[in-house]
Automatic annotation (TrEMBL):
It comes from the Bacteria. This is NADPH:quinone reductase-like Zn-dependent oxidoreductase. Residues 10-319 form the Enoyl reductase (ER) domain. The lineage of its organism: Bacteria, Bacillati, Actinomycetota, Actinomycetes, Pseudonocardiales. PROSITE patterns: QOR_ZETA_CRYSTAL. Transmembrane segments: none annotated.
Amino acid sequence: MKAITQDTYGQADVLQFKDIDMPVAGPDEVLIRIRAAAIDAGTWHLMTGEPYLLRLGFGLKRPKVPVRGREMAGTIEAAGANVTDFKPGDDVVGTATNGTFAEYVTATTARLAPKPASLSFEQAAAIPISGITAVQAVRDTAKIQAGQKVLVIGAAGGVGTYIVQLAKAFGAEVTGVCSTAKTELVQSIGADHVIDYTSQQIPAGRYDVVFDIAGNRKLTEVRRALTPKGMLVLVGGENGGIWLGGMERVLGATLLSPFVSHRLRNVLAIERRKDLEFLIGMIEDGKVKPVIGRTCGLAEVPGTIKDLQAGSARGKTVVII
């Protein structure tokens, strides 16, 4: 089968489009014919092996799993002997640990959900990682309530577009922060206000909750936007050092939180079927929609990742397979 693989860490030029052996489902797994996959921030981190801390779990000198990609939508081709909740022919959406930039993948069913007929494979593939992260940030960590004023920094990205929509669905007044070229997109998904960070300042002392997805501002700068008892929720971060990545800010926030009036929290998402099904339900009810900024073919993935590194992403980028 065709797949995007790598045998060493590095930039996008380490990715190879080539033929590899098809995986075989174990007794507790299903074999899925992938129809669409999506690119998330983790794709870049696993490609480069940065921050170095992640290599402890994913391979010190080279990736343990050579195929990139983790989220997908497709059709079950075969089911292991112990699988009872899905069968061949079922369309599913979810994540896998052994690489989804490929024609086939194996997965455990705990991270899968049925794909609604109302969603295309491309739309479904854009849901799992960014969507689950947003659900756990908005519903579980911040516990957004109606009437709260919410700021989303990085509102036009994969996670940001879901956070904007979920916060609105929960009744908040939402302000999105993005660049000039993305303001129209953020408005189109329901933001009450949009701040163009290239020409506007974030108001001080206004927001009950700030979600910082971009990760390129100091904690003191972001906290300035909060009300005295407000909450800052850190969702990832791309501008840390090569050893810890965005974890420096997370650790700093954790250490600082007991000594300030603001509540400083971070989100380390756990991929759970119930959260995936919750978000799919919100989508079917018309309260949230996947935002796809770009599609590409499997062979185009290396070049597409280069473009994403330049900061051009709007919503999710989906790979059609």
